[in-house]
Amino acid sequence: MLNFNYSVPTKVFFGKNKIDLLAENIKKYGSNVLLVYGGGSIKRNGIYDNLIEIFNENDINFWELGGVKPNPRISSVRKGIEICQEQGIDIILAVGGGSTIDCAKVIGAGFYYNGDPWEIVTDPSKIEDSLPIATILTLAATGSEMNAGAVITNLETKEKLGTGHPSMAPKFSILDPTYTFTVPQKHTAAGTADIMSHIFEVYFSKTKGAYVQNRMAEALLKTCINYGTKALQEPENYEARANLMWTASLAINGLLSDGKETEWSVHAMEHELSAFYDITHGTGLAILTPYWMEYSLNKKTVDKFVEYGVNVWGINSDNDKYEIAQTAIEKTREYFNLLGIPSNLSEVGIEAEKLKEMAKQATRRGKLGNFKPLTKQDVLNIYKKAL
Ligand code: NZQ
Ligand code: ZN
């Protein structure tokens, strides 16, 4: 296990009616709030009305930035910063999924940056501080509610890039699983695939001796497998939604990754799909993952795939190593199909002609990952297999 410093500064209020704690926690930071939300789901499911009532009852002043799109745009970030500067905002409250939360985080950091906020996306070292961020999560997927990262898209330059700074970690997050009852099937599936991918990105690692991280990762993977399909069949199953929600946060808050060398190559490959085709993040990950696994399977990595197959999928450990590995990969693919996610990039509108350019972009900062380092040609090969 490698050395690490572990700190998750975000307070989590988890469970039904935890919204009751909103006003008192906002007021610790002030009474001028920028409310950030997406395309209107919170207006349809009643969360918005509830918030306005709470703000009015508690003398909280609020300004709104609605319409944040999936794969949030830098243009929304710019608008948000303007409101914060004009209105003397004390705290930014993001209500939604990862896109809304990420947008809020970069608004918070952009507020203190003297220049265009795209510069702090391309170069996170320029971030010095952020306005306080709080979140009310409505979709179990990215884990943005409990980490310091954000991913922003620039449509003009066709770039989707991750950034982050400790000051961008939410001060508190309200996680009420009932808020995810209205998440449509497509996003429930994509969210589950995203959580699983976050776990794969840190589970498949060359670091030895991280036994506890590996066993926790397997437990979280099994939770996704158990409850992902259940949430699709029964959207209002509290147990399923609650387990997925907490798993989403735990999967990418450092618990599984600290002490290990990590991978993140499937995410880097997917970000290009979203940047070029604006597809749903989790859908792209689910399509690429089994192809990445097949491509990464070799003499050096096979034991890790055996560990995965035996401990997560319950495959007989007496079988031949490669047979276990291949069965595990096939089971992964079948599970994503069971969630209703297609197996090929062409099924989500991705064309052969852009693959080369995307592979080039994905590797612009060098090879991807450590478990099986990927060159531009490797990335292109994986894209082609996935087509
Ligand atoms: O916009 P609204 O109307 O709210 O609808 C959203 C959106 O259409 C809908 N939705 C969310 N909650 C709902 C709901 N619909 C009905 N009922 C509800 N309760 O779901 C759609 C997708 O929302 P979005 O926020 O885009 O999804 P997600 O949470 O998957 O976020 C994806 C973004 O996060 C980034 C991704 O790259 C992508 O841009 N990521 C952020 C990470 C982080 N900050 O740590 C890590 C991830 O790996 C990921 O890259
Ligand atoms: Zn992700």
Automatic annotation (TrEMBL):
Key words of the record: Oxidoreductase
Domain of life: Bacteria
Boundaries of every Alcohol dehydrogenase iron-type/glycerol dehydrogenase GldA domain copy: 9-177
Residues of the Fe-containing alcohol dehydrogenase-like C-terminal domain: 188-387
GO terms for cellular component: cytosol
Pfam families: ADH_Fe_C (PF25137), Fe-ADH (PF00465)
PROSITE patterns in alphabetical order: ADH_IRON_1, ADH_IRON_2
SUPFAM superfamilies the UniProt entry points to: Dehydroquinate synthase-like (SSF56796)
InterPro entries on file: ADH_Fe/GldA, ADH_Fe_C, ADH_Fe_CS, BDH-like
MF-aspect GO terms: alcohol dehydrogenase (NADP+) activity; butanol dehydrogenase (NAD+) activity; metal ion binding; methylglyoxal reductase (NADPH) (acetol producing) activity
This protein's name: Iron-containing alcohol dehydrogenase
Organism: Halanaerobium congolense
